[in-house]
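<derive_structure_tokens>
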Amino acid sequence: MTKETRVILVRHGETTANHEQRWYGALDAPLTERGRLQVQATGERFRRRREQEPVDALYVSPLPRARSTAAAIAEALGMEPIVEEGLREFSIGDWEGRTFRDLMENEQLWQRWAQDPTFAPPNGESPASFGKRAIETVQSLAERHPGQRIVLVTHGGIISCVLDAWVGDRNGDWIRWDPHNCAVSELVWDGERWRAESINDISHLPPEAVTDVVPAYSSEQRNDRTR
């Protein structure tokens, strides 16, 4: 019988770009004060559980916002994070740094993607190409560690895509699974299929580290689906 592999997905702490609702995929932005609180609390979560839930490997996106988040987890676990290029965020190339509202109103970006998921902004990725990268990366890391528990510190795009594919209906509704900053999800691979043990858990975050702000693109896509 194949031993189960546990994959723990952690989104990075809140950044100034998150707060301003700007698309930063390949670009990076510093953590906010709330983001630093989130990171601290997430490190403590792993510290409390390290005896009962030992971690065998810690992987991280190459982007600084993820690496600073992983550093707190690494310190709590007493291990070195491994940089994995495939865990980087969805890049929209020349359109990066713009607000979600700007991309909605002047590029009709989410409308374009709803009609054609292979559409990529100049020098950027499409939902189709990004989704393929996200799925292949996480699957490969799981298969590299049979019967073990691994932590992946990554981005909202990666996590949403993976949850849609393996927990949801695989219909591209990534927004349904959009994680809070420093949310933790645990997926289990039994050698044939995936199941979720927890999804976007933020119970480890103190109240002052939680926000209920909804990204502008969320209402846009919801409206598109009901028209």
